[in-house]
Specification:
The complex is a heterodimer.
Chain A: H1 33-39, H2 48-57, H3 60-82, E1 92-93, E2 96-97, H4 111-120, H5 138-174, H6 176-191, H7 194-213, H8 218-221, H9 223-235, H10 238-251, H11 255-262, H12 267-275, H13 280-303, H14 315-321, H15 331-359
Antiparallel strand pairs in A: 1-2
Helix pairs in contact in A: 2-15, 3-5, 3-15, 5-6, 5-9, 5-10, 5-13, 5-14, 5-15, 6-10, 7-9, 10-13, 11-12, 13-14, 13-15, 14-15
Chain B: H1 2-28, H2 43-52, H3 59-71, H4 85-120, H5 125-138, H6 142-156, H7 171-197, H8 200-207, H9 212-249, H10 255-264, H11 268-296
Classes of the chains: A mainly alpha, B mainly alpha.
């Protein structure tokens, strides 16, 4: 291409031909290696999960909640290993039970402990939140209470996830009469007042289960906890099942499902390989938001005295027992109450963040 | 419409029946009978008593008899006090209804105002402030809020006297009960208000020169109300269950306290009766909510 643009015929006004007079020879030189490199795609290929996590990490509220949750989880794992006290044991000094170590203020030592420290010169681990009315270290009880509350939330969410996922996918995938019958059952369970039934079942199952679990590993968990899980498993999965069914109904009409069916893939494989991975975002978000709601329910039941059995404790039952000495020891209420709020708040914000991060693909 | 209402009523009756069946058969599971005492009754006396209270009949017959008694207003007697449960429930419920009703109305009105305000001042400081408080309020269980309020205002600051029948002060319990639903209504109202404000008819109204106040109240708010209506049913359920702990904390002698006491006392007939009573209330609230929702907006179909 030479620089003789003036030789070219004048461009017709209506012609779609490229007007060469606007270019010069430089525009048509081959790109150098350096320039070619600029065109290379720098980002690595991303997966669904990575992409969502990247977006989640950009959300300051979600990251903040993740940090708080991480700190709490680290605390409940590490502290019981460091702290010499246990949640069920009355403060013991040098092998003898210190009966007067009850109702200590934060960082206060009992008489016996002070004497022991003066005599041996050894420094005892401080009672960071004092002791309760029975002389048990309150700080470690709060730590164990957080443990119990969080694990109830997580276990309940997983149970709800499993039951809801199986029920919802079967109803959605097979459709027709199966769907109709299964969804009517869901409708009925959905219209039942769940909290009342939970209370009722907790009251009764408690009486009923106790003789059966005595002496087994479940006994430590207590009949109340088992009945709580039973009720979660019986009632709480319905909204999850509904959501998943709705997702599957819309996904199963996609061409790739039809293609998979054409080459003779089994139903189970289609569900597991093609359909469920595509409603993963809904599953992640709903499960994440199920945890705080289960913690809410557990603390509520514990507050009514239907929660974990003593000496095990949860944040709700700690708050409940703190009501007795409310005026004299307000910190015993405030600490578990603030922890419940903090955990639920962090989980809620994390759930919202997950929704923003993972659901944007659907929108 | 009529078909929908009939369908909905049938579902409501069905769920009441199921709740009653669950309550009844679950109560049957409890070991021991009402006449099991430390001092054994003679076999003859036991038989007479069982016949008198139909306890010798099969369980399903007992259930039918129980339901017939319920429908006749005979809800049994309390194991602890020996008083008639139905009279007890109705008198206690009057207190709870006043408390819960005020809390519900407050939650809806304040929630609507805050939600509309947040929508109108989107991304400005009033909106951010409201969002902050609603997020906080939804993370706080009612019992935590109630105990903290009691601690701060009654015990520490002594601004409000502790509740007593002679000197009833409903402010704190109402706040404790209504904060969570209020936050929820605020969120709902904000989203639907934002949605309504973006609609064509709002633009048309503005273009015609309708004043901003009229646009907001006559055009936007009316449509923003619809999603709030759907929340009324769940809100009633929340307030009824929430009032159990809140009443208990403030020592208000309502149905909630009655329920908690009956749980602690293992007073089974009362537990059963109160559960059934509250369940019926909740189911009716849900039924009315659904019907109202459909009446307000005829575009809605439930398919």
């Amino acid at each position: 291409m030479q620089n003789n643009t003036s030789d070219l015929p004048k461009k017709n006004l209506l012609s779609a031909q490229v007007d060469l007079s606007k270019f010069n020879a430089d525009d048509f030189r081959l790109a150098t290696d350096d320039e070619k490199k600029q065109q290379d795609v720098m980002g690595e290929s991303t997966t669904f999960f990575k992409d969502g996590m990247r977006r989640l990490m950009k959300n300051p509220l979600a990251v903040g909640s993740l940090i708080i949750l991480f700190l709490i989880i680290a605390g409940i794992v590490i502290i019981p290993k460091v702290c010499p006290y246990t949640y069920s044991q009355i403060v013991t000094v040098n092998g003898t039970r210190d009966k007067r170590a009850n109702n200590l203020a934060p960082f206060e030592y009992s008489k016996l402990e002070t004497q022991y420290m003066q005599k041996s010169g050894e420094k005892l681990f401080p009672h960071i939140l004092g002791t309760d009315s029975l002389g048990r270290d309150y700080f470690i009880r709060v730590v164990y209470g957080t443990r119990v509350s969080l694990s109830v939330g997580v276990v309940a969410a997983i149970m709800v996830l499993i039951i809801g996922l199986i029920y919802g996918s079967v109803a959605g995938y097979f459709g027709g009469t199966v769907d109709l019958v299964m969804m009517r059952i869901v409708d009925i369970i959905y219209s039942l007042p769940d909290m009342l039934i939970i209370i009722l079942l907790s009251v009764v199952l408690n009486e009923r289960i106790t003789p059966y679990i005595e002496g087994t590993a479940l006994a430590k968990l207590g009949a109340n906890m088992i009945s709580m899980f039973l009720v979660f498993g019986l009632l709480y999965w319905v909204s999850m099942a509904r959501l998943i069914r709705g997702q599957i109904l819309s996904i199963k009409n996609n061409e790739y499902v039809l293609a998979a069916r054409c080459i003779g893939t089994s139903n189970v494989k289609i569900l597991l390989r093609h359909i469920i991975p595509n409603c993963l975002s809904v599953i992640i978000i709903t499960t994440a938001l199920q945890v705080p709601s289960a913690i809410f329910t557990e603390s509520y039941l514990s507050f009514l005295g239907l929660g974990v059995s003593a000496p095990l404790t949860s944040l709700g039952s700690l708050a409940n027992s703190a009501r007795e000495g409310l005026q004299s020891y307000p910190h015993r209420l405030i600490v578990p109450a603030v922890l419940i709020c903090l955990i639920v708040l962090a989980l809620n914000l994390l759930g919202d963040g997950l929704r923003d991060a993972f659901d944007s693909k659907l929108n | 419409m009529a078909k929908y209402i009939i369908k909905r009523v049938i579902l409501a009756i069905l769920s009441i029946l199921i709740v009653s069946a669950i309550t009844f058969f679950v109560m049957e599971l409890i070991p021991g009978g009402p006449f099991n005492k430390e001092k054994a009754t003679s076999a003859q006396a036991q038989a007479v008593l069982e016949e008198r209270y139909n306890l010798d009949k099969p369980v399903q017959v007992q259930y039918v008899l129980y339901m017939r008694n319920i429908l006749h207003g005979d809800w049994g007697v309390s194991l602890k006090t020996g008083r008639d449960i139905w009279n007890n429930i109705t008198s206690k419920f009057a207190v709870s209804a006043r408390l819960g009703g005020t809390a519900a109305i407050l939650a809806i009105i304040v929630g609507l105002i805050l939600g509309s305000l947040a929508a109108l001042t989107r991304n400005k400081w009033p909106d951010r402030l409201i969002v902050f408080f609603t997020t906080l309020a939804t993370a706080m269980p009612s019992f935590v809020l109630a105990t903290l309020l009691l601690l701060v205002f009654c015990l520490q600051l002594r601004l409000i006297p502790v509740w007593s029948p002679k000197n009833p002060n409903y402010i704190l319990p109402i706040i404790a009960l209504s904060l969570y639903p209020m936050a929820y209504v605020t969120r709902l109202a904000k989203t639907s208000m934002l949605d309504a404000l973006g609609q064509d008819y709002i633009r048309t109204a503005k273009a015609k020169g309708v004043s901003t106040i009229k646009v907001i109240f006559l055009h936007a708010l009316r449509n923003a109300l619809i999603p709030v209506i759907t929340y009324v049913g769940p809100m009633v359920a929340y307030i009824l269950t929430g009032s159990m702990v809140v009443e208990n904390i403030f020592t208000i002698g309502g149905l909630g306290t009655e329920f908690v006491t009956s749980i602690t006392n293992r007073d089974y007939p009362t537990i059963m009766a109160v559960t059934l009573f509250l369940a019926i209330l909740m189911v009716i609230a849900n039924l009315l909510t659904d019907i109202a929702y459909k009446l307000v907006d005829p575009r809605i179909t439930f398919n």
